């Protein structure tokens, strides 16, 4: 059973709602992200939603847009975001992480490399906004074959 499935099963059993905080990878600066994630887990986060910064997040509100801009200005990249997941996993094997973002930077990464790196860096759940039917479906099919389900 996946981390996220086990977490939601326990929440259902305990009749609790989930605490799922969002943070943007690399905000306020890259070196702080892993510590913030660990603090969120220690404070009781059931799942951590880790934003993948994107230069044109039109569907997000102003707070998430500003966080992404700050992260990108401080040098955050897709590969560095995946490396943050690896750093977090070295210290916390239990708290599920959901990567949240857009397909555009994954497509440029490119998609196959993103999925390979997601497996290598132990980032196994993605929530993508506004992917477009064809590309989103293609990513979902490719990812599910590698054990990376998409919440798109």
What does this 3D model show about the protein?
The protein has 152 residues and is α/β, with parallel strands linked by helices. It is 51% helix and 11% strand. The chain has seven helices and four strands. Helix 2 (30-42) packs parallel to helix 4. The longest helix is centred in the middle third of the chain and has 14 residues, at 78-91.
Topology, pairings included?
Elements: H1 3-13, E1 22-24, H2 30-42, E2 48-51, H3 62-73, H4 78-91, E3 97-102, H5 103-108, H6 111-120, E4 126-129, H7 133-144
Parallel strand pairs: 1-2, 2-3, 3-4
Question: Which key features would you list for this structure?
Answer:
four-stranded parallel beta sheet; 11% strand; globular; 7 helices; 152 residues
Q: So what's the overall shape?
A: globular
Amount of beta strand? 5-15%
- Helix and strand string, N-terminal first? HEHEHHEHHEH
- Chain-averaged pLDDT: 84
Structure summary:
The chain has 152 residues and is of the alpha/beta class.
